[in-house]
Amino acid sequence: MKRIKRISSLMLSIVLLTTSIAFADIEKTQINKASNLLKTKSGMQQVIDEYFQARENALNATAITEQKYVATLNKAVDINNTALMSLETKRLEARENMAKYHDVHIISAESHPYVQEVREINENGYNEAYEVAVKEWTWIYYNDGNGGEIDEMAYATEHQMTVATKNGSGYRIINNIYDEDQFIGKAEINRNTDSALMENNLQQNAVDIQTFDLSNFDINELIHYADLYVGVDCINSSGYNPKYANLNGSGGDCANYVSQCLLAGGLQRDDTWYAKRKTGSSIYTIFSNAWATAPSLKNYLESQGYSYVNATQSNVFPGNPVYCYVQANSGYTHVGICVGYNNSGVPIINAHNNDIYHMPYTYFTVNGNGPKTVRLFTCNKLGDKPDGSNTITFPSSGSKTKSLAVSARKSKYVKIIHPSGPNGHYTVRLSNALADSDVKGKVYLYQQKVGSNFMYERKFSESATNGATFSFSYNYNPSYTYFLRYYTDAVSGSKTINITATAS
Predict the structure, then answer these.
(1) Cross-strand bridge partners of residue 429
(2) CATH superfamily of this structure's domain 391-503
(3) Which of 465, 497, 474, 493 lies closest to 418, judged by CA?
(4) Which H or E run includes 66?
(5) CA dihedral 197, 118, 138, 253 (to 10 degrees)
(6) Mean pLDDT rounded to a whole number for the chain
(7) Is the peptide bond before 354 cis (omega within 30 degrees of 0)?
(8) Plot region of 265 (φ>0 → left; ψ -120 to 50 → alpha; else → beta)
């Protein structure tokens, strides 16, 4: 997922602070106003910088002591707001909780905050006061605690901050409203549910019972869509697909996002499960209950013959919706979708509201209420047994090239065979020789633990340039088998790509 973060960084128009406080490069009045205002308020920039740096440091416990973390908070946050200080110091428990409850042993962490809006307000007792809306992405790099390979996950936290100053004493964060308890290890969560969406966006129809034909469902397309629009790039303020209305302000966007992912994979809309555009509009704003609300989506899938069961590591497969218990009065009203596995074989989830990327499904356990899943798929469709007829063996030295025939919307797998001997560093290059220069070729690198039945995406690249070269460089681990997958959307007939393997 580092690819998306890189794209974000390249497209940021203003970088304000050392901890990546940034404004997205988009044409929005509030963003422009926030930019111009903060450029004149260096003291406010500094205190926001200190605050998010402290939050990042709290997760990197090997680099900072508890005392230094609290001291940093004392400089940025109004210590008289005891509730806020108590909320902040909870982060010190995150490392232990993540390891204890989720087997997430933090190697390092990063805080990527994006300022979305700054608005001047009146606050009693202060000369100046501002409301500052910040979307913070927290990136966690972790392993299993036993020296295993590093995985990454991320979650978004929406901050509604009040920053103020009086009598020349400097700016302080006097209040901040946010919720990240679910992610730092506390069991109880409290979020808006999507059970009360605006009625003018909903249409209810009778269920027409049928069984889905999922034989041509493309799990890889679902995962590609899920990662692309989970929200991590913040380019369009939220990172969501701009072709769909964002329903976070109308009860929640979680089911809307999961439905989009299922559609991308190949599930067909019908009279019960759909999103529609109003006449003359390019944006989907009309949604059925089954599409846009988590309980109704579950009911719809159940009506098609798919069981809704307690989620376990052995039945949460890529493409399956995964449900989270929200609170006693609403139950399982939050939904995400499984997008694969981490290096330990634990299913990982993407979701909206709160936005999460590749988080272990165990984070959907709340107050002893474990997650549930709809068994849309009962096996791993990621390609755990990909076509083995295409193989390429790394040479002991130099390079080796193999040509591969590809066609539109057909995944082509290549198994990478390594020479015997010690671990080594290898580079794979693929030359896109497609004649259609405007067609994107997409290349994925997967690894599969020897003896297991799951694959894990390690790298991804795409290009729309004829003759473009994709290059993957990695260190070979003999505990894994490696596969390349090439996919292109719309070329005519059969085309050829060249694969070059180089020992280094």
Answers:
(1) 471, 500
(2) Mitogen Ypm (2.60.120.510)
(3) 474
(4) helix 66-76
(5) 10
(6) 77
(7) yes
(8) alpha
Is-contact 352 256, C-beta < 8 A?
Answer: yes
Considering only CA atoms, which of 38, 34, 37, 36 is closest in space to residue 49? 38
User: Containing H/E element for 341?
Assistant: strand 334-341
Token pair 């308890």 is found at: 181
Residue 154 CA to residue 169 CA, distance in Å, equals: 36
Threshold 0.90, pTM exceeds: no
Beta bridge partners of 275: 287
Q: How many CB atoms are located within 10 Å of the residue 378 CB?
A: 11
The C-alpha atoms of residue 106 and residue 59 are separated, in whole angstroms, by 8
Query: Hey, where are the domains in the chain?
Result: 2-186, 195-374, 391-503
CA–CA dist 481, 459 (Å, integer): 14
Tell me the pLDDT band of 114, cut-offs 50, 70 and 90. Answer: confident
Q: Which helix (H) or strand (E) holds 58?
A: helix 42-59
> How much of the chain exceeds pLDDT 90, in percent?
32
Q: Which of 275-284, 314-323, 408-417 shows the lowest mean pLDDT across its residues?
A: 408-417
Mean pLDDT of 313-325: 93
Which string of DSSP letters, residue by residue, matches 151-211?
EEEEEEEEEEEEEEE-TT---EEEEEE---HHHHT-S------GGG--GGGEE--------
Q: What's the pLDDT tens digit per position in 289-315?
A: 999 999 999 999 999 999 999 999 889
- Give CA–CA dist 76/82, Å, rounded: 14
286: Cβ contacts below 8 Å, ≥ 6 apart: 201, 203, 275, 276, 277, 278
> Using one digit for the tens of pLDDT, what is the confidence trace for 210-230?
468 887 888 878 988 898 899
158 within 8 A of 170, measured Cβ to Cβ: no
Q: Residue 69's beta-bridge partner residues?
A: none
> Which architecture does CATH list for 195-374?
Alpha-Beta Complex (3.90)
What is the total residue count of the chain?
A: 504
Compute the distance between CA of residue 6 and CA of residue 2 in angstroms, rounded to an integer. 6
Domain boundaries 2-186, corresponding CATH code? 3.10.450
Residue 280 CA neighbour count, 13 Å, CB half: 0
Q: Residue 108 corresponds to which amino acid?
A: S
Given a contact cutoff of 8 angstroms between Cβ atoms, the answer to whether 158 and 135 are in contact is yes
